[in-house]
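Review form for a predicted model. The reviewer records the input and the model, then writes brief findings.
Reviewer: anonymous (R2)
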Amino acid sequence: MVQLHNMPENSRIRIKAFTGDIEPTFKTLTDLWPAANWMERETYDFFGFRFTGHPNLKRILNMDSLEGWPLRKEYPLEDPFRKDKDDKMFGR
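Model under review:
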């Protein structure tokens, strides 16, 4: 969903689009609004939504090595490589 607001005329437009759950894909809006570049990259970075035709669709705020999409909750809750944890304390 994209919301646009024309401040001088105080008018708003809301654009909604629907997609599948497994591979969410949308057409890019950067052709019409170049400022949508940042918003689309941020949405890709946190949710994994792909925008076809985007000029530079890559992570913008998270590390490149991050696997999964943080706001889709598809990453491990604990760091499996930590050595300073004692699992006996937590009943594991």
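Findings: The longest strand covers residues 2-6.
Further findings: DSSP finds one helix and four strands in the chain.
Recommendation: see findings above.
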